[in-house]
TrEMBL record:
Keywords attached to this entry: Membrane, Transmembrane, Transmembrane helix
Name of this protein: DUF1772 domain-containing protein
Biased composition (Polar residues): 170-179
Residue ranges of the region described as Disordered: 170-192
Membrane spanning residue stretches: 12-37, 65-86, 95-115
Amino acid sequence: MKTTPAPSLRRRLGYTLFSLAFISCGAVLGGSLYQLIAEVPNWSTNPAQELQAYQQFFRVSHAGYFFQALMPLTILSLGAATALLWNQGAAVRRLLLLVLAGLVLNEVFTLVYFMPRNLVLFVPSPNGVDAETVTTMAREWQMANYPRLAITVGIILGFLRTHRLLSAPTQPATETPAKTWSAAELRPELSH
């Protein structure tokens, strides 16, 4: 009976970092769903007035702190896991890079598109912003949140697929019997 060798320290560490990235990305998805289901309905019907109450309630901390802590952790953990698990095969490597690219794309989208709107919508401004601008930005924020959520779901599906590949038992290399060549195959002119 053959025994499967224990995973190397590199693989165990890589898998641990992969799991940390997976869990933190799941928390990001949960936070995004919470915002969409619980928070957005509370400020989206009349954003100019309702966001003032929202800002007053979240004056010490807001959702941005949650995401600003988890996204870098997710990206750094997955980046390190990708480096450590690089030798686990081409399929795993491709999926890790694809998931990492999705995370980076999501973060760039957030920084470029959402952050300017977040500063207007969720951070109290001493100068104030006119109601029409707030309403427009709130609508844009809401509509763009759906594609960002879809990207996050795609990333989670990529994590699940990668996890399945990483968890599959490794198949021992089987030896293929050496082909025996006949004289006719080696020297076809002799078979006539």
